Amino acid sequence: MPLPLAELLSPALLDRLFARIDARTDEMVDLARALVRMPTINPPGDAYTPCAELIGNRLRSRGFIVEYRRGEGTQGDSDRYPRTNVIARVEGRGRGPCVHFNGHIDVVAPGHGWTVDPFAGAVKDGRLYGRGTCDMKGGLAAAIVATEAIVDEHIPFHGAIEISGTVDEETGGFGGVAYLARQGLFSKPRVDHVIIPEPLQVDRVCLGHRGVWWAEVEMRGRIGHGSMPFLGLSAIRGMGDFLGLVERELYPKLDARQTRMPVEPPGARHSTLNWNSIHGGLDEGYEGVPSPLVADSCRLVLDRRFLIEENLNEVKAEVIELLERVKRQRAGLGYTIKDIVVFHPTMAEAEAPVVRALDESIARVLGRPATHIASPGTYDQKHVARIGHLHDCVAYGPGRLELAHQPDEYVDIAEMVASAKVMAAAALRLLAA
């Protein structure tokens, strides 16, 4: 028989559960180190299958039902770089809700500036170092140990617990959570609550994130001889006019807008616009003396982060209006604009069940109240909400976001342990509902 709520969340039971997690600190670190030693660099998507199998084999040995789902046909998927996802599930003793922990297994390239081997999993001064320790293999290891502790403690509960290791979050999540959501794996009735252990600090619950619009703008002019530029039409000069208008007119408008979302850091509570890249004229990479040409093309990629209070059509219209003005000012100049990625803002309600469960568990484990935040960038919650139509989903996990993608990335081991306790207690609260 499943335990009633009072017994399932009794101090004595939670103390036993927390003691079991404490006793497995070294095991949690070893698991995280094993995950880090899998160089799952994205792009191109290295080592996805062996990393997924490492997780699957471990959880199968603990009694979980394990399956692998390849994101066939998604961006980047190939026989050389298969988009292999793993999903593991353990059933309780009766019908009830399902709590799902989702962590992405892909990491960005290590880059330069490391003082330790980025894929060795070095432990020093209470920290685990390596690419992906913070974002987010440390959090995934903590979630795995948290759920294993519930199973190994033989706690009778209604419902089910799931864990997934998914791919491609760093490049949009299309072969991972987006693909699985289209298969119904992040929707009711299969799943009721989702916790994503992204690195947002152990006392903070991330309710959601701002929206993103990436687009490529190409300005088109007319080629000509560099000694007679008046016979051509420079696309670079046209793009310069556009950038000047953005600088003088659009940036002040964006700075004046502020969201009700509790975005951290505070600078991201405003609308923002970044130029990811700009290219014009001759192709890059040529050797020797350049040709004397008037540039007939100039391209840039914009990264516009918009607020939950903003309308996407109006966000786009602001940019297009400035492009139209440039076009009118320089006869013969043209432009195209093409969407690359669009994700709308998403935010769980502060009183949602998963938020309340994490709030209460943070207070129990850490002895201080939780803080609610929102992320400046997107993560896989967007797919759970927009495709799975499941809104009881948040991010919570160990680590500090500012360390993600940095050289000498690390996660504090004590924070991994604390987050595992919070996730275990929150899962029990949700399963007892």
Number of beta strands: 18
Q: For this structure, what is the CATH class of the largest domain? A: Alpha Beta
Rg is: 24 Å
- Low-confidence stretches at least 5 residues in length (pLDDT < 50)? none
> How large a portion of the residues is in β-strands, by DSSP E?
15-25%
What's a concise summary of this model?
This protein has helices at about 5-10, 10-25, 25-35, 50-60, 135-150, 175-180, 235-255, 310-330, 355-365, 380-385, 415-430, and strands at about 65-70, 85-90, 100-105, 125, 125-130, 160-165, 195, 205-210, 210-220, 225, 270-280, 295, 295-305, 335-345, 345, 370-375, 395, 410.
Chart the SSEs and their pairings.
Elements: H1 5-8, H2 11-23, H3 25-36, H4 48-61, E1 65-70, E2 84-91, E3 98-104, E4 123-124, E5 127-129, H5 133-152, E6 160-166, H6 177-182, E7 193-196, E8 204-209, E9 211-220, E10 224-225, H7 235-256, E11 272-280, E12 293-294, E13 297-306, H8 312-329, E14 334-343, E15 346-347, H9 353-366, E16 371-375, H10 381-386, E17 393-395, E18 410-412, H11 413-431
Parallel strand pairs: 3-6, 3-7, 7-17, 8-16
Antiparallel strand pairs: 1-2, 2-6, 4-5, 5-18, 8-15, 9-13, 9-14, 10-12, 11-13
Walk me through what this model shows:
The protein has 433 residues and is of the alpha+beta class. The chain folds into two domains: 5-209 and 346-431, Aminopeptidase; 211-343, Alpha-Beta Plaits, CATH 3.30.70. Helix content is 34%, strand content 23%. The protein is built from eleven helices and 18 strands. It has helices spanning 5-8, 11-23, 25-36, 48-61, 133-152, 177-182, 235-256, 312-329, 353-366, 381-386, 413-431; strands at 65-70, 84-91, 98-104, 123-124, 127-129, 160-166, 193-196, 204-209, 211-220, 224-225, 272-280, 293-294, 297-306, 334-343, 346-347, 371-375, 393-395, 410-412. The protein has a six-stranded mixed sheet. Helix 2 packs antiparallel against helix 11, helix 7 (235-256) runs antiparallel to helix 8 and helix 9 (353-366) packs across helix 11 (413-431). The longest helix is centred in the middle third of the chain and has 22 residues, at 235-256. The protein starts with a helix and ends with a helix. The model has no long low-confidence stretch (mean pLDDT 96).
